[in-house]
Amino acid sequence: MKAFALALALASLGGVALAADPVEGIWQTKADDNGNFGFVQIAPCGAKLCGVLIKAFDGKGAEMKSPNIGKRIVWDMVPQGDGAYGDGQVWAPDRDKTYASKMALSGKTLAVSGCVLGGLFCRSSEWVRVK
User: Fold this and answer.
1) In order of start, what are the domains of the chain with their CATH numbers?
2) Cross-strand partners of 86
3) Which of 15, 28, 62, 65 lies most in the core, judged by the most C-beta atoms within 10 Å?
4) How far is CA 76 from CA 23, 57, 69, 99, 115, in A?
């Protein structure tokens, strides 16, 4: 009887949804070189995390059309614990460059940084949680 109860308990756990990663959600990027910013939705993509541009705004905060909406901005991010993420890539549309990237989550702020050419040129930006 104990074995049956244990099997039943284990089977019921199979239907429990795993908690979402704390970085999942919508983030407002810092303004780029052109003054534009966007909303990036971060969600799982397999065992890693990816972010897609879902809205774009001009320097005055008005929503604008952009050919980059729907494109991946962040991909292959791996949770490393304590709000750290690494081994990912981030694409900067304003410079059309892809950077080896990492992220650090602290409250409602997400520090996103990346480098090219083995760390010779780096950029960093703080994103703010929208929801």
Assistant:
1) 18-129 (2.40.128.520)
2) 78
3) 28
4) 14, 25, 19, 12, 15
Alpha-carbon Rg for the chain, nearest whole angstrom, is 18
DSSP code at position 119: G
pTM score of the predicted model: 0.83
Residues 114 and 29: beta-carbon distance below 8 Å: no
Which positions ≥6 away from 3 have C-beta within 8 Å? none
Question: From CA 66, how far away is CA 34, in angstroms rounded?
Answer: 13
The single-letter code of the amino acid at 118 is G
Calpha distance 81→49 (Å, rounded): 14
Tokens representing residue 61 in the block: 């905060």
Residue in 109, 108, 35, 27 with CA at minimum distance from that of residue 73: 27
* pLDDT, tens digit (0-9, with 9 covering 90-100), for 35-58: 999 999 999 999 999 999 999 999
Beta strands in 16-120 (DSSP E): 25-28, 37-45, 48-57, 63-64, 72-81, 84-92, 97-106, 109-116
Instruction: Categorize the per-residue pLDDT at 109 as very low, low, confident or very high, splitting at 50, 70 and 90.
Output: very high
